Amino acid sequence: MSFLRRLGRSEQGQSSVELVAALPFVLLVGALVWQCALAGHTAWLAAHAARAGARAEVVDGDVKAAVRSVLPAGLEPGLEVERRDGRVAVSVELPLLLHRWRLPVAVGATASLGDGS
Fold this sequence. Notes:
Distance between the termini: 91 Å
């Protein structure tokens, strides 16, 4: 009987040790999920900005100002806007976990309104 009592006492901190060992993996998976969501949101914002630029292109407005007006200020440092054949292409650097940190990867979108002539 004393053997079973000692065995029960030796396992008292087992779940704490398992939690501490698994915590870095849980945080890594959470960071990866957050980064994927941030990449998707950035791509959606780039597409929205390209559509705004295409609308400005149709009415002979300032395309770059229209694109900047729909993007958050945190995405403007890596912004590239290109007009070609009636289309507006927008490229934005992908943020890394926060809008202040950047990856060397860009996401972009192209939009046009009308037939391009």
